[in-house]
Amino acid sequence: MSSRKQSNLSSRTKRRRVEDELRYINVSEDVMVVNYDIPSLIVPNKSGSQSKSVVEIDLPTNPHENNTFLNLNQNQLQNTTELTEDPIYNSADEEIKYLSSETDEDDDIHLWNNDSEISSIILSLITQWAITYNIPQNALSKLLLILRKHSCFEAIPKDARTIMHSNTAKPNLRMVEPGKYHHFGVANGIKKNILECSKKNSDIQIVVGIDGLPLFKSNSEQFWPILAYIYPNNDNVFPIGIYCGKEKPKDSNDFIKDFIDESKALIEQGLYIDSKKYNFSIRTMCCDTPAKSYILKIKGHSGFYSCSKCEIEGEYLANRICFPYTPSTRCPQTRSHQNYLVQSQEEHHVGNTSLLATLPMFDVVTTFSLDYMHLVCLGTVRKLIMLWIKGPIGIRYPSWKIEEMSKALEQLKIHIPCEFARKPRTLLEVSRWKATEFRNFLLYIGIVVTKPILQDEHWKHFFGLSVAMIILLSPDYAEYINVSRILLDNFVKNFEKIYGRHLISHNIHGLTHICEDYVRFGPLDTCSAFPFENYMCSLKRMLRKPNKPLEQVVNRYKEICEL
Q1: Rounded distance between C-alpha atoms, residue 250 and residue 300, angstroms
Q2: Residue 175 backbone phi and psi in degrees, to 5
C-alpha cells in the first residue's frame, strides 16, 4: 500500500484497494505464483474504524519452488468476506459490488475538491510544471482531458484556466503616449518577494533597474519595464510596472509617475507587513547610459556635457565625441543633486528635471550607479577586442594572431567549470558575445590567452584593467580601493597614448568615476544590471503570440503569484 496514512484515505479509495487485493488473492488453481508478495489487508468496518484483522497467506520463499500452486480454500475466502462486511462478492462474474451509503456518495463527489489532499497536491504539481515550462493553456487543457479518462482523475477540471486561476477580467492599463502602461506596485512586489531573513530588519532597501526590451524582430514593439529586488536578494527580481508600445514613452515623467507616487508614500509613511512597520528607501538605480539620460532628462553619451558624474566638456575629434584624459589635479567639478535641481549647467539638461528629484532622500547623482555590465563588459572590453581585430593600422593584429587567440579559447572549453554560465567562443563570434562572456574574458581567461599574442605594452594595459575590476568586484579587497583607482586612472591615460585620443569614449571616461560606486555601494555586483537583464529574458518567455504582449505578461505574472 501507499505510504500515506490509511486513516486519511476516502472510503472509495479503501474499497478500490480491497477489491484489487481480493482479485490477486482469488487466483485460479491453474495460475503459477512465483515469489509474489501479497500485502496485508486492513479495511474499514461498518463503524468507520479500521479493522486490525489481517489476511496472511504463506507463499514459498525458496526460489526453486517455482512449481508450487496457490490453493485457497473456502474457509480463507469466507474469512476474507467477513473482514470486508460492506462489499458483496459475486462469484458468477468475479466482480465486487459495494453498498454505498449517502455519506460515501458525498465523499465521491468531493474527492477532488479542496478538502482532498491528493487533489490539491496533484493540481499544484501540474500548475507548477505548466508555469516552469511555459506550457500553453490549450496544451494543458488537452492534458487534463487525457487524465480525466482515467477513473482516478475523472473529477479534475477540464479547462486549464481553472487550475491556473486565470483571471478573465481585463488588466488595469493606463495610457502613456504612444503606448500603455500597467503598474504592478512596489508594495505588492515587496510583500510577495520578501524573505524571512529580510523580515528581521526594520529597513527595506530596493535596487531598481529600468531599460528597454525589444520584443520581436518583425516589428518595433517593445517593453520598458521598471524592475526591482530587495537588497541583497538579487535572485528575486519583480516588476513594478511595464510600458508597452511601438516606441519608448514620449515623456519619461509620465512613464514613472505611478512608481514615484507610490515610492514617495512608502518613504514618508513606511511599509506594513504582518503588522510590522518597515522603513523604505531606494538604495540605487541601475541603468545603462541611454536609459539613464532618458529618465533624468539629460544629454546622452554623444553629448558634449553627457557625463553624469562631472562637468567635463567633450571634444569633437575624428567625427566623434571624445573625453580626453584629464589628470586628477585638474579634474572638472563634480555634479551634485542641488546643481541638477537648479540646472547650473544648462548644456547638460534636456527639458525639465525628472520626477525622481522629488523623492525624499534621493540623490539623482549618487543614487544612479555606473553599471559595470554596460560600462566595462559591453563597453570597454568589447572596444578593446574590436580594436585588436578591426582597429586602425598599427593597432590591429594580423589575422593569424587572432586565429591563435581563438584556438586558445577553444582549447579552454573543456577546462571551464560548470559554475560559468557560458563556455568561451572564438573571437570570430565576438559580435555575438554576451556580457557574461566579456566578463569571463576580462577576469579569468583573457590575460592567459592574450599573453603570448599581444604586444607587451598592450597586454600590461589590459592586465591593469583586469586587476582593477577584480578588486572592485570582490567584497574582501576594500583596502585596495586606492590601488584600483590608480590602475583605472593609468588605464585611461595610457589608452590615449596607445589607441588614440579620439577613441576615449564616454565609457572609457566613466572608468575614472566607477570607484566611487564601490565606496558607496560595495562590490559592483550589488549595483549592476545583470539581475535585471536575466529577468528580462523571463519576460520574453511569457509571450506566446505577438498579439497583446502586455496583457499576456500581466496574466502570466498573476498566475505565478497564485502559486
Answers
A1: 16
A2: -75, 125
State residue 196's pLDDT score: 72
For residue 295, what is its C-alpha cell?
Answer: 529618465
pLDDT at 53: 40
Q: Residue type at 71?
A: N
- Domains of the chain, by residue range, sit at 6-100, 110-163, 175-319+336-369+546-562, 370-527
CA dihedral 479, 484, 486, 487 (to 10 degrees): 150
* Three-state helix/strand/coil letters over 392-443: CCCCCCCHHHHHHHHHHHHHCHHHCCCCCCCCCCCHHHHHHCCHHHHHHHHH
Spacing of C-alpha 202 from chain mean position: 26
Alpha-carbon span 563 to 561, nearest angstrom: 5
Q: Yes or no: say if 353 and 342 are a contact pair by the CB < 8 Å rule.
A: no
Give the count of alpha carbons within 13 A of 528, CB side only.
24
C-alpha count within 13 angstroms, C-beta hemisphere, residue 489:
13
Give the three-class secondary structure for 143.
Answer: helix
What cell was used for 108? Answer: 465521491
Distance CA(12)–CA(5), nearest Å, equals 15
Cβ distance 199 to 190 under 8 Å?
Answer: no
Residues in the chain, pLDDT under 50: 1-5, 27-115
142 neighbors 152 (Cβ within 8 angstroms): no
Cα separation, 202 vs 199, whole angstroms: 7
Distance CA 291, CA 287 (A): 6
Q: Which amino acid is at 413?
A: K
Q: How distant, in Å, are the alpha carbons of 11, 51, 283, 481 from that of 18?
A: 11, 13, 63, 74
- Rounded distance between C-alpha atoms, residue 90 and residue 22, angstroms: 12
Q: Tell me the backbone φ, ψ of residue 90, rounded to 5 degrees.
A: -100, 105
Residue 64: count other Cβ atoms within 10 Å of its Cβ: 7
In the chain, the N- to C-terminal Cα span, in Å, equals: 30
- Give me the helices (H) in 153-251, please: 160-163, 186-193, 196-199
- Report which of 285, 258, 521, 505 is spatially closest to residue 294, judged by C-alpha positions: 285
Cell readout for 149 is 479518462
